[in-house]
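Suppose you are handed only these lines of text.
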Amino acid sequence: MTVALAFSRPASETITECRSCGSDRLDVFLDLGDMPLADRLVRTAELSAPEPRFPLSVAFCEDCTLVQITETVDPEILFAQDYPYYSSFSPALLAHSRANALDLVERRRLGPASLVVELASNDGYLLKNYVERDIGVLGIDPATGPAETARRAGVPTLNLFFTREIARRLAAEGRRADVVHANNVLAHVADTNGFVAGLRMILKDDGVAVIEAPYVLPLVEHVEFDTIYHEHLCYFSVTALDRLFRRHGLYLNELKHLAIHGGSLRLYVEPVERVGTSVSGQLARERALGMDGIAFYRDLSSRVGTLKRDLAALLYRLKAEGKSIAAYGAAAKGATLVNHVGIGRDLVDFVVDRNIHKQGRHMPGQAIPILAPEALVERRPDYVLLLAWNFADEIMAQQQAYRDLGGRFIIPVPEPRIV
Ligand code: JHZ
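From them, the structure of the protein bound to JHZ can be written out as follows.
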């Protein structure tokens, strides 16, 4: 059942046209059912209240090839109020971001006269690397808590959603950027074209936008279905991105493959066309794989079904053997996993997470309590389901003490396995 939130406008809308090209030829190939909101972690006082749920279906655009979900939940509900995601809780992400910034400082010869803008700058995790070097920065982020943290860390931040109108204002004030970062945000915005048009407006003619987004190819190959949730409206291929940018006078000239978040792309996008082989080669690879047709995506649904059955069977078998199970990572993707597979407190006793803003709350839909990671050594569950499997190496190294006590991890994707 879908429960409406108390807002004056609809809490969500179902699209009938492609978010990028406007075509009505949308073909749904995966339906995960009605799902709670992945980052709406439940407080103890709210446990008895009904939780809002929204449909979660994924479609392919027959015209521009963009993969997208069909429901748009009001971004004010998703991101502005009480958003618990703080980028700085992952040392691996901090190191990844610092290396990116230092590379650009060198490649683009950035100095005190330069301006670096980040869209969705969160808690300042990336821009602080430029601040250290006296390079001008501006962060833009709608989430109040993370934006406050960024300001306290010395990163000037506008606490608002980046839109075409904001871009126009900044450009009129002469605040155009040498580098615009947009990490894990392009997939999150409902007005995809407005966002890209705005990006063009705030970019100098010789500037570069450096954009990171999860790549739909590893999602399909490794059955990373749990990275699908309402915050992620789009699941990009290079083919779909290339068409989107060109519509706004921008060119995807270079790309890098990144391991982060289960497989992402770093895109170098500029107002001048000089497409390199990293892009032309990947476009050719996508054509060869058939990613420009729905057939490529068709069997994902049955593969998700197999994973769901196998994971549930493994957890029920362990419980039948008298084992105790906890989970690691109150990640947004963890919410999709526990809710789609149906993992409740009968299977998993608690979830641990280093993010202090998540501790003390509960996983959406399943009311599993979230504790600090120390609970693993204190309570010694026999198994830990790794919901943040994208940080498996980092987390397992950190949890050596728990593993030395005999604790084992269960990695859920691409197929459940015990390590
Ligand atoms: P994490 C995030 O999704 C946020 P999530 C967002 N939805 C997005 O777009 C994608 O990334 C790409 C914790 N943790 O980052 C921190 C530890 O406790 O994989 C997080 O709560 N200890 C905007 O939420 C969670 O795990 C650790 O050592 O699915 C990881 O969540 C580490 C490394 C993490 O993504």
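What can we learn from it? The mean pLDDT is 95. Residues 85, 89-90, 92, 184, 214, 231, 261, 329-333, 353-355, 358, 388, 390-391, 394-395, 398 surround JHZ (CB under 6 Å).
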